[in-house]
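Hi R.,

Here are the chain sequences for the assembly we discussed:
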Amino acid sequence: MKLWAILGEGERRRELDLEVQVEGGRLFLESGGEKIAADVVALPDGESYSLLVDGRSYEVAIEEGADGLRVTLGGKTFAAQVRSPLEKVLREVRHVAPAEAGWKLLAPMPGLVVAVKVVPGDPVTAGTPILIMEAMKMQNELSAEAAGVVEKVHVGPKQSVEAGQTLVTVGPAK
Amino acid sequence: MKLWAILGEGERRRELDLEVQVEGGRLFLESGGEKIAADVVALPDGESYSLLVDGRSYEVAIEEGADGLRVTLGGKTFAAQVRSPLEKVLREVRHVAPAEAGWKLLAPMPGLVVAVKVVPGDPVTAGTPILIMEAMKMQNELSAEAAGVVEKVHVGPKQSVEAGQTLVTVGPAK
Amino acid sequence: MAASARSFRRVLVANRGEIAVRVIRTLRDLGMTSIAVYSEADRAALHVLLADEAYPVGPAAASQSYLDVERLLEAARVSRAEAVHPGYGFLSENAGFAAACESAGLVFIGPPASAIRVMGNKLAARELARQVGAPLVPGSPGPVTSLDQARTEAERIGFPILLKAAAGGGGKGMRVLRDAAGLQAAFDLVRGEAKAAFGDDQVYVERYLEHPRHIEAQVLADTSGHVLFLGERECSVQRRHQKVLEETPSPALPAKVRAELGAAACKVAQAAGYRNAGTVEFIVDEKDRFYFLEMNTRLQVEHPVTEMVTGLDLVAEQIRIARGEPLGFDPQDAMPRGAAVECRVYAEDPRRGFLPATGTVARLRWPLGPGVRVDSGIYRGYTVPVHYDPILAKIVSWGRDREQALARMGRALDETILHGVTTNVGFHRWLVRHPVILAGRYDTRFLEEQFRPDVLEGDSDAERAALVAASLHEWQKSRSVALPRRRDGAAWKWAGIEEPR
Amino acid sequence: MAASARSFRRVLVANRGEIAVRVIRTLRDLGMTSIAVYSEADRAALHVLLADEAYPVGPAAASQSYLDVERLLEAARVSRAEAVHPGYGFLSENAGFAAACESAGLVFIGPPASAIRVMGNKLAARELARQVGAPLVPGSPGPVTSLDQARTEAERIGFPILLKAAAGGGGKGMRVLRDAAGLQAAFDLVRGEAKAAFGDDQVYVERYLEHPRHIEAQVLADTSGHVLFLGERECSVQRRHQKVLEETPSPALPAKVRAELGAAACKVAQAAGYRNAGTVEFIVDEKDRFYFLEMNTRLQVEHPVTEMVTGLDLVAEQIRIARGEPLGFDPQDAMPRGAAVECRVYAEDPRRGFLPATGTVARLRWPLGPGVRVDSGIYRGYTVPVHYDPILAKIVSWGRDREQALARMGRALDETILHGVTTNVGFHRWLVRHPVILAGRYDTRFLEEQFRPDVLEGDSDAERAALVAASLHEWQKSRSVALPRRRDGAAWKWAGIEEPR
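And here is the predicted structure of the full complex:
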């Protein structure tokens, strides 16, 4: 997965192109020739993570603000913005012309549908919340990947779904 | 509001009939001739409350379990079940005969609709989750007061509503 | 005084925040009933949760609650309180409040109103100090009532000068002037601040020392008026004239000077007819000459460092004295052991001129373990009100020597997790590892000379970890799933979803 | 030993939970690199979060991770560790592990393998104690290998007897028998337990004292073999043969006996060629006669009470000794001051026979303030694993005297908020206010004789408040609204909705 990051503020602001892979509990990050491998785990206490980078232990908290992320570790706070270049492209496409084809929202993992936030006929744009799923005791909001109009809702509240199952079919934007 | 409470377990189990009123930040409780007035406030840290009863300060935490509430204060834990006699009646009625008339789910306070969990035609029973509302930065689940069949959903996600506004109309159970 | 010294068990704490919590703890230790008061902004504050009882005293504005004598006395009446502990700040140095408590039949846990009154007036205090032979910084003989008089005195004393509110304290109502240019503006400003903060616009002028250290003596005067010196505290690390780090013993005070300073402090307290705990503040110059500054007639914010080395509970001693009891210890058993440091945790932004901050405590983990004490007024989920002092907590460390105390403080600060509110914890991490602090040779100009916001920037290792975490967070969000939290009967573990490629 | 004594800066902590956190704190204080190890169940454990570095050592089962010597040595190699601190439990008293560390070029922070070996065998330890003249409880001269032999020895010694695993400790692998009736079952059981827990099924028999106190001596042997006695700990409050509360000094030991006990402890340590910190355990009878029980060749769970009164950091001293350095203090400066108490916080249910509990920490607020130290291995959100010892934390209090230390402990326990996991915190609240504990006259039978689950029931005031809270909670739920949380720029306040009637 390619990401595009802005780290720091003011004079220390840097932009980076990242290649991120997450596999089997480990995160691999490549940027400008440098490779980082980290063992990562989400902590149950707020938006925080434990990272082990080359054995070094970091407890990192993340707060989402209007102007990006605030990343705190070891008492230092870093401003960071991490964006998907793909999402950026999609967002631009949306403003230029409707997507030519529809798409399907698939269940990313097994779980339980908690609530559906759209009905057939609703227009959506990238980022529109579509459905809330509960998995591993956590509620997750699934949102639209691209613009379109909801064609069909295949599932309802309290329904169990398998990973990869189609949840909502979205037609091209009108 | 009348409530019916079971306090304690085993030999110490007691049943009480309560009359509870909540007005302007104060809770009035009457049981067997005894009257208690308490200043009450919800703490932002979990399901916990600060009570001032005759000036005495109690920090109380409540955990919901399968067999009722676990109420912890001052290091002691009490088992408690508090039920509405009306709900009990309704629940019995439900099993005997359908409610004769429908009812409306009204917004208890101004807020924002987050998600609707039912669609017209859905049967509901007392306690069925119907809608999630956000108010005062808190999400609250509104559930059915009695059995019935959803007739009409008047609101949708992201819609602002006023206190008392009709959210969902429910017809008699079939 | 003698009239008020009597047994009591129900004590109203006329304060809020960490100091109210501090006093409540000792009341619990003594088996006494602790009675909190709270403004409308403080209904869910920690001191209300921890007290045995709690009563409202009015709106959020301090002037209508914690500073309102009538409301406090009414709360004392309703709660059947027998004594009042004022904490620090608010009405703690208000002679009228002390007197009103006594009139209402309440024991005031502090010095007699007469001692508060004389020390509350900087000029009377200086005069008293002069009489007992305590050295003084050159200054105006009385308050300067006009700009002209201020100018005349400033020229007589010689610049740089300090304009100070007579009733001031805690850094409020003071300005430094290096020449006569800004005198008018400063004079009006200090008078205005003094009026607003203390209801008294008297101002005086004194010589400003370029590289002073701020060292204070803790004293304890028993019911018979015998005054004990319990060691000094070095308080020279200040920003905006307010202390941020204090320690005992002072790392740079010769033993002979320490003894002289302690003796001078005791003499001042005795001359004022002092009872209970008090602090005599001195300025010390480059040649270790000390000058009497003022006496704080109350428990000091930084009293815990003295408690850590002496093993005393100063609040318990205050209560014993107020009850007319002898001190609870033999002075020989309270000889200082080791060294202690305190870091004040403020809701403020060191990157933006230490401006006060507010917010809700989203995540909180205080440091624990050997040699660490935390006095805190906050908890997770608590919203820091805008109405009061931005002090959130004090982290205190003790060591067999200063090196260990500072090392433990560094460790404690590293462990501290406090999110959701901007604080000076990161600033303290820098501070306690600064070579000048480690060497123990600093004065009140230290921060002004050494601190720049960019010293708080992270290193490249930390930046790398921040980047990993931010990427992980974004990866997870882009997948529209939370990073799964698997419970295998044990800890939380990431299941490791394959990323679709 | 001498070969291994050398400088190091990278220390692997071969343990988990509160003791790993405890050791990591001292490593940070000393500026050393702390290296944690973790099983699969512990990836998000507090010791992993607080360490400088962390490395995996295998599956959740201790036998495949924290007890697996090869995996630990591999982690040490990968992490370039130079020394290993074993904590308590796990491999801390395993002579083979100490020897394997030394063979791998790692400094083992503890006694030489030879001293562990001799003390790890109860019979060899008794023999050594006998040689230096330390009094012994009558017992079998060697392990009893058959039921017949056990019966013969039991009858010779006289009932009641104690069946003990030779390699045992911490209450595991022991049974009391009042007559010969249950001997066969007990013999098989203890052998089974011993085999499972220590891989060694040797068992011996000794006289069981009816009202013994359990008092232990902390010793510290420097690099030259000189042994210091750092005071005793009274550990007689036990449930299921495990300590729950410890204190120093013992409230009921005459000064003369204390000195004799300390001297005996030093002699035993010297005879074993001991180095580093160790604890010599004694049983003391009603007439203050003491008997050598065993020597624990490691840091003890309850070492913090000794640290509180002496001002020492025992882990730092362990490290100094392991580096071949002299002790970091003058014994004259470590004379005990005041009294200290420790309450072990276990995940267990005192209402149901102290059975271990598990769960996720839903809400956590540790006690803070003067005289309180907390050593904890948990944090909010942490799930207590089922795989390990149920100790979550230790709350330690200090006072100028025992009365103050106990009062502070009571206050600390009252302040403690730990929800989501059943713990013994409420039990400790009862314990530290029990008249027998307050009087300081208790023995190891105390809990058996005095504790009944119903002592933990609340009073009617608390019940009333519980009822109010439960009603409020239900009222709010029945309204399908959360109790509104209004933010008026300050604290959270309930807006007060009118209930429709």
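DSSP finds 16 helices and 24 strands in chain D. The two ends of chain D are 81 Å apart (CA to CA).

Let me know if anything looks off.

Best,
T.
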